[in-house]
Amino acid sequence: MKPVHPSNFENPLGVEMCKNRGVRGIVACDPRGVIGLEGKLPWHYPEDLQFFSETIQKFPIVMGRKTWETLPRKYFVDRAVVVFSHEKRQGVHGEIWVTSLEEFLLLDLSSPTFLIGGGELYSLFLENQIVRDFFISHIKKEYAGDTFFPLSLLETWTKTVLRDTQEITTCYYENHHSQNTKNISL
Questions:
Q1: Is residue 101 within 8 Å of residue 186, measured between CB atoms?
Q2: Which of 56, 125, 134, 145 has the most crowded Cβ, counting Cβ within 10 A?
Q3: In 10 A of CB 102, how many CB atoms?
Q4: Three-state SS string across 103-147, please?
Q5: How far is the CA of 20 from the CAs of 35, 48, 162, 164, in angstroms?
Q6: CATH topology for the 18-174 domain
Q7: β-sheet bridge partners, residue 81
Q8: What is the pTM of this model?
Q9: Distance between CA atoms of 97 and 65, rounded to whole angstroms?
Q10: What tens digit of pLDDT does each residue of 72-95 get?
């Protein structure tokens, strides 16, 4: 099945999120929500890496510091890169460092902007209902892990299966309760 690109999905809410017109999430996780082990993916599925690359294309990406430190630099070329950290830093490779959700929401990023990890940032954005939709590759095999995606926070979202293979089911989730136009207090 051909990968689904985010441009094929209209904004289901028809609203803007402050200056950011929409945050979309993308992740691969096992049935328990495992997304990482010791700073790395605990699996290697080339078809999922291809789906990830093709879906985020050249769109802006948002991630936590740990994800930024481990992600191959090829993902940072020709796009805006926003990195969350507890400490304010100066970008060395053109990335923008932020220390809060409020600071992030003030950025003027093109749409869509993709949230790509890690576990703490997924939880922050989901708990504050900032993400409007998610592409999730559900890895069918269980893996050992120390970093998790909060699957329970998507229980009320609308789910559509995009493709189903022997090893992975890729789904699209829509959040009908997104706070895209509201100010967020942490």
A1: yes
A2: 134
A3: 13
A4: HHHCCCCCCCEEECCCHHHHHHHHHCCCEEEEEEEEECCCCCCCE
A5: 26, 27, 26, 32
A6: Dihydrofolate Reductase, subunit A (3.40.430)
A7: 61
A8: 0.83
A9: 9
A10: 888 898 899 999 999 988 887 789
Residue with tokens 């879906």: 55
- Residue pair 145/35 in contact by the 8 Å Cβ criterion: yes
Measured at the CA of 141, the angle between CA 137 and CA 146, to 5 degrees, comes to: 80
Determine the residue type at 160: T
Q: Helix (H) and strand (E) counts for the chain?
A: 4, 10
Instruction: Answer for the pair 126, 16: CB distance below 8 angstroms, yes or no.
Output: no
Quick check: 82 and 107 in contact, CB under 8 A?
A: yes
Summarised one tens digit per residue, pLDDT across range 124-174 is 999 999 999 999 999 999 999 999 999 999 999 999 999 999 999 999 999
Residue with tokens 């094929």: 8
* C-alpha count within 13 angstroms, C-beta hemisphere, residue 35: 21
DSSP 31: T
**Cα 83 to Cα 68, 97, 110, distances in angstroms:** 7, 5, 16
Residue with tokens 């209209």: 10
